[in-house]
Queue: 2 jobs
Job 1
Amino acid sequence: QAKAAGGNRIGAYTEADATRAGRRLKLEGELRGALERHELSLRYQPIYAASGRLRGFEALLRWNHPELGAVSPAEFVPLAEQTGLIVPIGEWVIREACRMQRETTAKGHADIVMAVNLSPVQLRVPSFVDGMLRLLEECGVPASGLELEITESIMLEAGETTIASLDRLRQAGVRIALDDFGTGYASLTYLRELPIHTLKLDRSFIHPICHQHTERVIVESMISLVHRLGLEVVAEGIEDEDQLALLREWGCDLLQGYLLGRPIEARGMDVHLPKLA
Ligand code: C2E
Ligand code: MG
Ligand code: MG
Ligand code: MG
């Protein structure tokens, strides 16, 4: 870190670096008990079909730290992956998300799909698929009510077992989505190799579609490419009406972003979720 910031000078290790390292150590140590102390929670961000029908939600993890306040999953999920804690935490996430899927369905939202982010570390646990299928049964959630969001990073250390596990899940009816599409490299290869139903176009592509010709062409062409492969496509991070209008014009199947709905707390989930205009 110090090297990257200040060349080879040893003295470049600044107070800011020390603070950052300190925070990291603190978080790493305290994450262990966070589940038991009920500091973790889920928010649910709505995902709509282009017709305006509510298609489901993406479950997003939050850590409400007693002193530091809200810690972003972008900060603590990597720590949880390094320590292996993502395995019990991820299991808790899936359980909670399934419970919410059932509750929401019971309230009359039929065919709700609950999307859960999956770490590559979870998928490498040999008993993951069996555990997952058992859990769905226990929770009374049909496999088609769950979508697992994976990223290209799953392929970095993936062997055949990773693909085989995804295949088994898919055969059982669990949906698989490729998240953050376009931010990695060799993306098109993965489209061929991974057993997926859904592709999520990363927000960094959606953001500039109203101003940048290149992004406009990329997103419009990606949507038709994905359709021709028989998959469905989600646009992430829609923040304004112009983006929404373009994505609808291009036939994007599913829509997600602050414009349509921010991630909501569990207790806010009883309120009537409005249809898209
Ligand atoms: P992601 O899966 O790509 O999730 C989308 C992120 O974009 C979420 O951030 C969401 O709040 C944010 N977002 C949604 N709509 C908009 C928008 O219109 N504008 C902007 N600027 N942002 C938007 P969040 O909740 O902070 O999560 C960050 C990342 O942390 C997620 O990215 C995912 O990779 C990871 N993550 C979250 N929950 C979990 C989890 O339960 N397990 C694992 N393994 N990773 C998780
Ligand atoms: Mg996601
Ligand atoms: Mg994403
Ligand atoms: Mg993203």
Note: The first helix runs from residue 2 to 6.
Job 2
Amino acid sequence: MKKMITVFKGDGIGPEITDCVLEILESAGAGLDYEIYNVGEAEWKRNGALIPDEAYASFERNRVLLKSPITTPIGHGFRSLNVTLRNKYDLYANIRPAKSNIAVKTPFSDVDMVIFRENTEDLYVGVEEKIDEDTVHAKKIITRKASTRIIRDAFEYAKNHGRKKVTCVHKANILKMSDGLFLDIFEQIAKEYPEIEHNDKIIDNTCMQMVMNPNQFDVIVTPNLYGDLLSDLASGLIGGLGLLPSSNLGTDYAMFEAVHGSAPDIAGKHIANPTALLWSACMMLEYLGQKECAGKIRRAVDEVLADGTCLTPDLHGTATTEEYRDAIIRKIREMN
Ligand code: NAD
């Protein structure tokens, strides 16, 4: 029986990359059915709701969501819908694998790290207070509960995926109480996994080391804001945002999305790279136990990237999104 999932099409390049990914999933014979919704800024302008009630209800029924990027106004307007979804469904573990691909030339060929970003607290709670005309305070929240579960997940992942080392990234030298708590919990939990090497690094040093010597990083666990920044940095190391997928996992719900945003600068130009959303869909298939189908799609993407003749402009090619999609579908058909 096919698994029903919810799909949010999002803003900017969202609809075009979603259509493309759904066609590839179809060609690979994914055991999925879809409930598809328009959400985000465009939907709000059309119908006055950023996420329609029926879209929320669908996710609550299906518990698995493939989500495209959503535009968030900067400095004003509504709260990020991404943050809203992560909090509403307690999607506390944001897992972002960044791996070099032989086909994509970057200064480093040996990047293979997985970032575990805490997804529900830190500065992202969005609690800001205007003290006077010239002063604003923002709250950074770190709790034992949220820190414990993300750190434990990072070690469990390392144990179950043959990873050797977990690095905690923080700023506990300055934020002695908040990041200090995160680091203390990390040190405690690390003792339960003696077979896995562990260390910690300050965020600024981590940024420098990531661009000098990225292959020293294996699994990284870190609070929300540093995880956000580090994963964009990691995407730069492997060829750009078009190649970085993610899963957002909670106890009851799972959401899969590209790390990148709605890319309004290239929306509608047919040049968006759908790989990050496609690999997010592969993570979803693996989560649902459809590993063979995910493997087939991953192999097809690898072959198209390695062939190098049909790449989107972000990877220095001239192919449209649709030409790239068709090249992947051809590879999948050869395997069927
Ligand atoms: P962005 O990630 O949308 O784009 C950054 C740069 O990367 C742009 O030049 C863009 O063209 C390029 N890029 C991104 N994805 C690409 C792809 N798949 N193929 C080719 N090029 C790609 O970041 P931004 O411009 O800072 O943000 C745009 C909007 O997206 C903002 O409103 C932001 O809040 C939102 N956003 C949403 C999410 C999400 O929904 N998860 C994540 C990040 C940003």
Note: The mean pLDDT is 94.
